[in-house]
Fold alpha-mannosidase.
Amino acid sequence: MDHVPFKHKRTTLERAEKFISPHYFTDINLRSRLYRERASLTSIKHCAVQDRISLNKALQGQFKTTSIGQAFGPVWSTHWFELEVNIPVSWQGQEVHLLWDSGSEALVWVQGQPVQVGTLCSFHVVHIEMACNHLFGVGNLALVKPEDDQRTFTLKQAEIALFDRDVYDLILDVETLHDIAKELPETNQRSFQALFTVNEMINQIEVQDRSTYKRAQEIAQEFFLQRNGDSQHTLFAMGHAHIDTAWLWPYDETKRKCARSWSCTLRLMEKYPEFTFVCSQAQQFAWVKQLYPSIWSDICKFVRMGQFVPVGGTWVEMDGNIPSGEACIRQFLYGQKFFQEEFGIKCREFWLPDTFGYSAQFPQIMRHCGVSRFLTQKLSWSLVNKFPHHTFYWEGIDGSSVLTHFPPGDSYEMKGKVHELLKTIHNFRDKGRSNCSAFLFGYGDGGHGPREDMLGRLERLKDCDGLPKVKLASSDAFFSTVESEQPSRLCRWRGELYLELHNGTYTTWAKVKKYNRLCEILLQETELLCTMAWVHRSLLKSDSLDYCYPRTKLDALWKLLLLNQFHDVLPGSSINMVRACVPYYCSREQQGTSTERHSPDLEPCLVNTQPFARREVVKLAHLDSARPSPKRRKLSGADADLEEDCNETHGEFLKEIMIYLRHLNNHKPRLVLSLQEDTGPIKGMVCERYNFYLSSVLVFCAGSLHARSMCVIESYFLCTSWSNEAIDSEHPANQFLLYDDVPLYWDAWDVMDYHLETSLQISDKSYLQQKIILEAGSPFVRFDTEVTWHENRKFLKVEFPTTVHTMECAYDIQSGFLRRPNHFNTSWDSARFEVCGHKWADLSEHGFGVAVLNNSKYGYSAVDGILRLSLLRSPKTPDFKADMGVHTFSYALMPHKGSLQEAGVIQAAHSFNCPLRVVDLPSSPSDPIASQDGGSDIGRSLFELDTAKVLVQAVKMAEDSSQTIIVRLNELFGGSVVATLTSRLRFQKVQVCDGLEDFNSEDRDIDFHHKTTERGSEITVKMSAFQIISLRCCI
Ligand SMILES: [Zn+2]
């Protein structure tokens, strides 16, 4: 009888580890047999190019012989190789691999097609497109290091080898058994069963003798085939390649990353018919369609087969905080439209695994775009608090909710390893409520995607007793299973999904954020004006005014804006090279502006693109005395009582001509600005005009900034009707603060809580100048600011210490507002020391409040009644020049009576961001719209609303019809309202639609009436708090 030694766990585990190790005993272990034979290539030829060019173009270049050991560069260049491969006769019919290691990314081309994975035939010329960057750009070792320009890439390996698939399978068996033995707790007998099994396998195998392999495989199979019971948790495993559309590489490299990743994925699909791969971002599909026809046709084939699964429904995976409500809807509109046109598919889930926090408006925007499911995992990165759910209903500010899932493994790039399966099941916080979760596998961020070994592991573990069951499936299968469980058991989370990290991204790359805001507004205004131009044309039918709605141009502009809202571009977390998108914005700005001026017959007119009446000071940049004065033309609800009163320059300070509005807003509160000359180097000029009812103040301040001691102006805001001072008399307002801004690791991303305890002096390289302007009739004081900024890891904010007593601060978000604490009571409150808001933030108590408006900023903090606006940061990685240079921006202080709604804070912020435009329009004697009903008043609004509680968020021509106008309404105040929208156009039919301009069953309950009257159309709609409603108005 044999004497069996006592089984020592550690020695047995390490025995198994060394048996398949790529580092130890590689001359005799099992892994040493993975390639049975190797052979050199017949020849290696090389051709260097600077640009990313096609194979055909590359073939026109000169290829010269090169060899292993050669280094190639510089970074971001491309090198094409032509390999002559001669497979030995004895290898015929067997699996032969090309082994290539250039330490960089590369794509294999065979017979003119990108293949990446494939079988080599008897004789081949193979081309390799080598990119001088690795998966994570060209940084030096650490992820967030800036680019290393000196880096080169050395060709270390180029040969062919005969692959032994039996050895490969045995390696996976040993590895998986070893991992089960190691990862399962000692209280679980399966751990020991795995240990004994792997030990027995190794005893069985004589590595040089392939005849011993079969018995070892059988031993492993017996273990893996021992099944789970019915109650076991199921993981829905989806292949995935998170490809950042730009990050540590530019957009152009991403196009090639898609080709490299997906060509490999498609070959795996041919081999593994059960394998499904989920893929988001329509923009990446569009690039591949344009540049790689053979990959595209394979994608189409596997989409039809249900293996290559488009998900997410958006144009790119955008930032989750900063884009406007309308831009978010357009992400879905263009994304879903692409998937529908190309594949006949409408995604049912929103897919945003890697974005830095999620707006409380998202559930509503998703629902409005026909999406009811959401997947992310980023909240696992929160520093302070652990989010309490993985599967739950997420409810937005309007009460809409979506089924939401965070893959509990806290990653979108699993490798199919045992410890990942166990982590997923252990972490899952909704046990009992649900019995399944998602498992995303494949290399990510830089792309690459699933590999064959991952599928091999998951195949072994698909139903192995003691471990969760694994099912290769799509996200639709996963969510449908959750919905079929007992969804009423699931918990609910209301409000935003705040990421307690990366909150510096509301401020980094200030110019990108500034242009983003500007272009979002410009595009919406341009669409409105183009729609109006089309209405004029269609009703007048005059050849001289013939006008075609510029749909193609607008689509292209929107898609570029949406692309730059990608979650590493708009947040400012990409390399310097990606910031090249800034000039793009400038050109869009010009294009947007030029679209307004399409006629040579010019007459300056005022255009109000907002649906409410306004009184504003209008600046004319170039006043020509020979030209007529601007006329009052109400083009969109404008009620600007403009009269030309004063054309006068103000010395050296203001070059523009200002035209004041005569009829003043006599409403309280009245603002009085008092200057304290001794607080700093202030040069001032005060213009008191038109006695008591018109007071316009222009102040020009210049000087260096002295941290906390610096106070540009001390302002007291008094109101005759109540005794409050809005600003704390002990602490000056508009005080600039400079903080030490050194995060723990993620430089461009993070600002840590401890920055609030610091106070620094600005260096002599930076300075700030500011105009403080109180315009006639304006409810706010405005601060036009120019900063020359050359700091290192410093954070500039401006502070307003108010006298408001309140528990909460309200912040403008996409299409509504959100209240967050004005205190640090709990860890959840204090973790939100820096938050995202859009055009305004407001602190109000009963009867009065103070708002801060801005035209390009997104970072705020509010605690104990002190409201701070974040202005500029200065991180050095991954963009070593981030935010250096000159910045101009404006913000404003608006003390008010009553609530923020009663005081018109929201309208004021919209006006601040979309000032009345002076547009040169043709001087037409008759107004076509007015002539429709014989009226005579010029320039009546296209749409008018009878309530200030509702905003017209968008007016555009429908995607699918040249005779239909889309009007999108948004309830602003957070309450229900019956709104009446009137138009001078007589619509034949008005229907409720969703954000995709389709009919959505969820919109059936919307209570609305449409009637045509003598004067046009009247649409009455009942809206609930923050509701967004889209209407199709057919002419
Ligand atoms: Zn990402």
